[in-house]
User: What shape does this take?
Amino acid sequence: MSSALSSTAQKLMLREQYGTPEQQRETVTLGMWIFLATEVMFFGGLFMAFAVYRMRFPQGFDEGSADMSIVLGSINTAVLIASSFAMALAIHSAATGKQYRSVWLLLTTAFLGVAFLAIKFTEYYQHYEAHKVPGIWFETSKPEAGAMQLFYVFYFAMTGLHALHMTIGITLVIIYALRAAAGSFDSEYHTPLEALGLYWHFVDIVWVFLFAIFYISGLHT
Amino acid sequence: MSTLVKIPAAETPNYLTEGRGIRSWLLTTDHKRIALLYLASVTVFFFIGGIFALLMRLELVTPASDLVSPHTYNELFSMHGIIMVWFFLIPSIPNTLGNFLIPMMIGAKDLAYPKINLASWYVFMLGGTITLYSMFRGGVDTGWTFYTPFSTIYSNTYVVGAALGIFVSGFASIMTGLNFIVTIHNMRAPGMTWFRLPLFIWSHYATSIIFVLATPVLAVTLLMVAVERIFQVGIFSSELGGDPVLFQHMFWFYSHPAVYIMVLPGMAVVSELVAAFSRKTIFGYTFVAFASVSIAVIGFLVWGHHMFVAGTSIYAAMYFSLLSYVVAVPSAIKVFNWTATVYKGSISWDTPMLYAIGFIGLFTIGGMTGLFLAALGIDVHVTDTYFVVAHFHYIMVGGTIMAFLGGIHYWWPKISGRMYPEGISKLSALTVFLGFNLTFFPQFVLGYLGMPRRYAAYPPEFQSLHVLSTAGATILGAGYLMPLIYLFWSWHYGPPAPPNPWRATGLEWQTSSPPPKQNFEITPVVTRKAYDYEGMKDELGLV
Amino acid sequence: MNSLQLLPDTASTFAVQWNWLFWMLVAVCGAVSTAVAVLLIYWTLRYHRKNDNEFPQQIQGNIKVETAWTLIPFILFVGMFAWGAELYFKIEKPPANAREVYVVAKQWMWKLQYTNGQREINTLHVPVGEPIRLVMTSEDAIHSFFIPAFRVKQDVLPARYTTLWFQATKPGKYHLFCAEYCGTKHSGMIGWVYAMEPHEFERWLEQGGAEGSLASTGEKLFHQFGCSNCHHFDSQGRCPVLTNLFGHRVRLLDGRTILADETYIREKILRPRAEPIEGYLDSVMPTFEGQLNEEQLLALIAYIKAIGPAPGTQQPTSSGTSSQSLGQQPGIAGPGATSISGSKPGDR
Amino acid sequence: MGPVVSVKTYMFTFLALLALTLSTVLIGFLNLGWGSMFVAVLIALGKAILIACFFMHALLEKKIVKLVIAGSILWFLILVTLTAGDYITRGWVAFGGK
Assistant: This one.
């Protein structure tokens, strides 16, 4: 698994069950998209439950939302969008044969991902300091304490699962950056990178919605 | 493991002999071997679940709860449900027969992702082990449905452990579904167009859609139950204003389609059996194919019929009831088409055909009683009674397990390279059929009389019917043990099987029995539709 | 061993209608199942393979036949749906004149109380020929109130009220079951329903020395917990007038409306400051969470239902409307409303 | 190998996403009642479409991939609408409002 790979056949890494490289690429891409469909339903269950409770307790959920730090949330959104941008450029570089640049862009992606998590955990720490962790330490003087707790349960569950997805993503990005540095990908063969990119962008999309439902509705209060 | 393009050697040993030793099995990526790993595992789970069922039936011989304590009884039916649903019925046909046959039927060398296929078995076993571990540590008494707030607040058993096991095994389902969909899309042999596919493939495709889209919702629901139970924050209970009925919505969004995960592969098998043993193409092939897909799709719209008395709105109940009737239509179409296929066929009475006919009969009764449960007013009385218990056992045991056994017999020559003994297998098919009806038909009457389900003790006037049911269960148990024994026997001592003992169509019969590791010496080129018995006749020179 | 029983008791108006639909379904489904079974067995025998070289004539299908057996079942199904839905509507919509009985379920018993204060456990006495409406709630897990002879069943949930109604037709003693699995002694959560002739029922109802009607118990609680300090029967109080509240829609602060049913009143007693009512922005009412048990809540609800339209009230549509906000001084706590700032239901 | 999109397209997508994030926040400060959540989710939907179409090349993929995307959205909507249908008609949520 090094630059010693020479012949095209070797570079294509064609596995025995496939007939052609094109079939292999399509198979990997389709598989990744179907996996993302399962992710839609996974997060979808939480989004649905959130929507039902939000309809029931608009005030309580807005009061919860008002506690969020819009500054950190917005910065984090920008950071994640930037990481997606870097990821898209990394794949573009790989596809156009600029392998060195691709490695650096992948590392940038991973770095931005880590920055996102760092900011996210800063926020978690602030919630903990403010005694806003349901089940562990929760205090409020607001009238809709129950609904507010529910808001925080969903907040921690959904952003927590998102953070877990980010962690998996960052690990994979670093591994793929190392593989790219070792010369595993070129303009002909970089299917695994494309699949990873799909995953990364999807996690970005999830965050875009999380940002919209958790940070915005309490801003005006 | 990144092998290069490889041309199979001229005389390859078959998949059972190529590579020996435990390592070659545990690290195999051959879909056929993984199918056998799954077969062994689900068989073990089936008998564990069966023992729980038998203990329950013995307890119910007398009205009082005297054989086991009520708490033990509650754990028995919970563990029976959990094991049978997630560790037997759901993987039963797709992961054994489906895994074995899908690549062969479409003329592929393997599934699209062989490593993910193997990983799915390990994940499945991990989930099963966690569940069994929490069962033997102290069990779980919530029923397989985990209704909140009982499961999150009031139960004192290992709920989180059992839920975790199911959560983990869900990933195996997702991997399998994903693998099947991609395989069926991208790995078909040249000439294998969508409408030349065997109906087995169509049904498994429909099943895979459900695997992929429903399972994640169960995963996230169980995760929320675990969070609620561990941190005591009421997501699905009322202290913070949450709604227990929301859990039921999310649970049944998975679990109703999961019923179709269980029965669609059964329908897949039966379509093959009816065609092969009638030597006729399936009447209305396209209708049966699209019926599978529409069952999968409409099956997602009907979950609320489990909740007609749960405190949902009456208007929601209305649309869920209507949609439940709509999903009954494609099931009816399938039954009618199978029956019409038999008409003017050339019917053999081999064991698989007996199972197939048993399937159609029992599935019809199960489906028809589903119409009762979908009728809103009727459901008010019969829901949560033995009527429901009988109904879903007719579908899952009378349907799926009959089809599973029929399929195992039909493809046994291909799987093992040996023929099973015909006489005793006919006897076992008959025993299963009779035992099944004796076990579960009285339960319809019990439910109609108002006997609630999940009762360790019951009023004495229900005793006669319970005794009948238990008697049936022992016969059924014997019926299930027979194939286990004689199939094991035939693995070594059965007469060697020819490549196509039934003179059936289908690519799987065109390769040797057992097939080589790569399935086919040369990738087949398909020029005919499925079930082309006209062509088969020509091929055999019987014009 | 007991004799085999194959027909359940039919002892309510609903049960009679239920039987009709049930046996209609048995007839239709039985006929179709039998037809399928007979054809399948007959053809299997008739077309039995004589030798292994036999290959039949192929039949691909028939679009007319397919259409027929798609459409005919569908039409039948829609009929079944309509009939079943009609029946369901009947059992979900109780008549207005129904006699109310309050049910509190807990692991593993049924506690019942009549409006005159009469209580019983695991038994329910009802008169024949009169509609009875059960208002039910649970103290713990989900239970389900099931009387097979009446063909009625309804899940009983915590923190909310579900209702069930029936009209018994035949005097007798019938089973009462819990039909939703609720834990260890689920199968012990059973009882009896006694349907009695009306005069016998009245006699039974009067005996047993209930300590006053449920509404009067509620009234006592209403004073005891200081509710009457603020909730006056005219618009002079600082709080919404409760006359004629029940069964009407209440306007919330943000303009949405919500139906004041049993569950709503319960919510308002326990969490008054959530979802403020129009005109009462800063509610001065303290929370009663943890201070009232389910039976007391039901008594209060019975009282609020009983007070109905008070003399001189000209607001028949709704209480809590803006007309009562005149003179409202938000945020001022009165003698009946204790400090609100310290109420933290979410504290550990 | 997969579809190749120009760097310029990525750049514009990136800038559009940043602009939409900013507008989400700004609109959030207006008091729109239930509308603020609605607008925020609507903008999020726009952002998701941008990411899917340009970063993930959904538009350039084969029909089956588009079907998978449409299917996952449809299934999520099934889950939401049929459940919400119960809650709305049950009287569990209040009606109307600004």
